[in-house]
Write a structure and sequence with these properties.
Length: 236
């Protein structure tokens, strides 16, 4: 597979990405910044080429993790990216369907995921398999990845995800159905006057009261990034 070598956080994180195919967005940056360290031992469900895992490890030098990716080609790029980021002893990449992967129960402090967003029934499924698997619930539906997270997270541990804002209520209901208590949520708006496009949610394995945090606005009136987003990107 042909790939490009890209960087995040002004060069602090290196990412190998397919030249043609699935490439990262701002979503893993927003999610990695939403979750508060320390992360302990984390599981990245559907890690792709490793962006979220690499960002979490960059934010918490004591953290370790496991990234599981169903697409072998993407998992291979994530695995190669470990050496580029000098985290070979801190991150394990598993090329497998996370529903069948041998993950010890109740063994992770944090489950983090930027999962497939869209229902297959909603249409517009890409004819390119790699993109379809990443964007639509072709192989991993909401209830399935929440079930994996609920089994893998320890008591008192956290589950964090970024999801379409229009499915926020569905996500919260699914978390609760699997014994996870939503604790924090933050909506992400493309502009201050536009409806939210994403929602960041953190749930805990235990009792919690849901807190709504101030919205994150991506673009200012001029079309550039807002000061907060520039800070999240590591820009001055």
């Amino acid at each position: 597979m042909e790939f490009t070598v890209d960087t995040l956080l002004r060069g602090r994180v290196t990412l190998l990405q397919p030249t043609d195919g699935l490439r990262t967005s701002l979503d893993p940056i927003f999610l990695s910044a939403f979750v508060v360290p320390p992360f302990g031992r984390f599981l990245d469900v559907g890690c792709g080429t490793g962006a979220l895992s690499f960002l979490l490890l960059a934010r918490d030098p004591a953290a370790t993790g496991v990234g599981v990716e169903i697409q072998p080609a993407l998992a291979a790029l994530a695995d190669a990216g470990r050496a580029r980021n000098d985290i070979e002893t801190r991150l394990t990449i598993v090329a497998d369907d996370v529903r069948a992967a041998p993950l010890p129960p109740a063994s992770f402090d944090l489950i983090a995921t930027n999962p497939p967003f869209f229902r297959v029934a909603d249409g517009n499924v890409s004819p390119i398999a790699a993109r379809a698997l990443a964007s639509h619930e072709v192989a991993l539906a909401l209830d399935e990845w929440v079930a994996v997270a609920a089994r893998a997270v320890r008591s008192g541990g956290r589950v964090a995800a970024i999801f379409p804002a229009e499915r926020a209520d569905e996500l919260l209901v699914t978390f609760r159905a699997w014994g996870l208590s939503p604790a924090r949520t933050r909506f992400v708006h493309p502009r201050v006057e536009r409806p939210a496009g994403r929602v960041l949610v953190e749930a805990v394995r235990g009792a919690s009261t849901l807190k709504y945090e101030p919205p994150l606005v991506v673009h200012d009136d001029g079309g550039g990034f807002t000061p907060e987003v520039r800070w999240l990107l590591g820009e001055p």
